[in-house]
Amino acid sequence: xxxxxxxxxxxxxxxxxxxxxxxxxxxxxxxxxxxxxxxxxxxxxxxxxxxxxxxxxxxxxxxxxxxxxxxxxxxxxxxxxxxxxxxxxxxxxxxxxxxxxxxxxxxxxxxxxxxxxxxxxxxxxxxxxxxxxxxxxxxxxxxxxxxxxxxxxxxxxxxxxxxxxxxxxxxxxxxxxxxxxxxxxxxxxxxxxxxxxxxxxxxxxxxxxxxxxxxxxxxxxxxxxxxxxxxxxxxxxxxxxxxxxxxxxxxxxxxxxxxxxxxxxxxxxxxxxxxxxxxxxxxxxxxxxxxxxxxxxxxxxxxxxxxxxxxxxxxxxxxxxx
Length: 322
Prior knowledge:
By secondary structure, the protein is α/β, with parallel strands linked by helices. It has helices at residues 52-61, 80-87, 113-119, 158-169, 204-212; strands spanning 37-42, 66-69, 131-135, 138-142, 174-178, 188-189, 217-220, 226-229, 244-248, 257-258, 266-270, 275-281, 285-292, 300-305. The protein has one domain: Metallo-dependent phosphatases (Purple Acid Phosphatase, chain A, domain 2). Mean pLDDT is 90; it is low at 1-26 and 28-32.
């Protein structure tokens, strides 16, 4: 394989006391005595014609915590048969701890009907596909990036207004958002596909809202690769107060290969790998680890804080002349 290129807890139904718009609760607001929690995520998962999802499901078997599938869960068409026969025997084993989001393949079926039938209340309102919940002291928000199905993703749409209300209501200091189509990515192409996407701006408004509220992490799939980004704002400018995006389209779907220029702020990227992203959530920080399937040596790991990145320590003053 090519070397890496360095370049359910219950859905949140109540409405806690809200903060003024644009402010986050201070560190420790809800973290006293909070234990660490775990989230394991990947998208683009189950194909009856391949075994990638069997390998990634074997990883999830040994990782406790909340399972977050990032859309395009049952190939090829998100049908009842695809969920029952392809997704069910592998990632379906974790259904009782799964918090999913939809992808474009789910909407091959009208209204993503089989997806919502399969997951029931865990998938949120079937007319929306967005919802939120808490894991440990962290707040997680599932958004629907198949925007037409959710009434849009731009400013003033129902989903965007709901997001702002949800962000204002949460008392969590640390926040993850997840959806299917990544805001930022290095272009990649699957075998036999003529078209290649180079940019996707439809979640820009959501990104800006999340950053304004102090959110920390975005998880996405769609691109069948792994890629980690530095903190950045909604326009792709490096920003220590921005969010870090992980593209984890490595759940089992056919691999894509990178083409063209590496996206700005991309810190590491890997094609031809199956695996899952494990996040260990501390009250005021988190650790990440990409866990590959058996036999694959690639991994990626690190840590970061909630909120703006700590300022760099000033350089020591030069010694005084004798």
